Amino acid sequence: MKILMTGATGYVGSATAKALLAAGHEVTAALRDASRTSALPAGAAHLVADLNEPKALADAAPGHDAVLHLGFPSHGADWFAAVEMERAALDHLADALTGTETRLIVTNGTIFLDPSNGPMDEDTPVLDDHPAAVRARSLMALRTRPGLACTEVRLASFVHGRGGSVFLPILMKHARETGEVPVVDDGAARLSALHVDDAAQAFLKLIAADNPAPLYHVAADDSPTARQLAEATAAATGASPKQVKPDEAAAALDPFTAMFLQTDNRLDSRRIRCELGWAPQADTTLIADVAFGSYR
């Protein structure tokens, strides 16, 4: 199949691009500029297209079997401006793809869901006052758009493996520099986890599906506490866990990372397992990977 990707040089995106190529698919990566081609896996093609100016992306999209959106605009501190920029770019893509057989696959997290009833599935309501809910609503509008084949994939909050991730390097860097690992309040928040290679395989399963659902949650079976993650980080870095208040964690790390470390986020991923046959295959867990694996 012919796949057009955004975010193919990013953490999840690069793992997914490699997996797609290994499975025999053709991958074209949309890059902000041609200087980024060296970061692409061997065998991937590219085009210069930016979410800031999405016309080239929208023009190229209908010639592919699927468009996999794993990128996000650079935003500095202005999250809402980045979400609006992404929304406008995805609207261009949706206009180009509506009425075609090309599937648009978009990616999100689950931090904006209501955790009060245990593990969260695809029917769990969005917390309307959560700062990340604005992006949830934007992607929901896409997957409910008439005539558009669109699926949203919500990944676990702590994607790990190969020494990368969004939040783990921030936590590890702080631990090594200060000798302390923040534990927000009592550290009882349960975290969702997923190995990056398992994330990539979920996208492969989705691309191969004849009639996938419009929404899937993807997570491994482990859901450690934030304190367990802090203890694993301490084991890897020689630092010590330190109990802090939420505002202290935000100041020490950043507000976004601190939010993920204090939010209950257990996920139910039975839908993708039952419908698409996906299952986690990694031989490590988040805690083992941080304490003894790829982050040492």
From TrEMBL:
NAD-dependent epimerase/dehydratase domain span: 3-209
GO CC, alphabetical: cytoplasm
One annotated GO molecular function: aldehyde dehydrogenase (NAD+) activity
InterPro entries given in the database record: Epimerase_deHydtase, NAD(P)-bd_dom_sf, NAD(P)-dependent_oxidoreduct
Stored PANTHER family: PROTEIN YEEZ, PUTATIVE-RELATED
Protein name: NAD(P)H-binding protein
Lineage: Bacteria, Pseudomonadati, Pseudomonadota, Alphaproteobacteria, Rhodobacterales
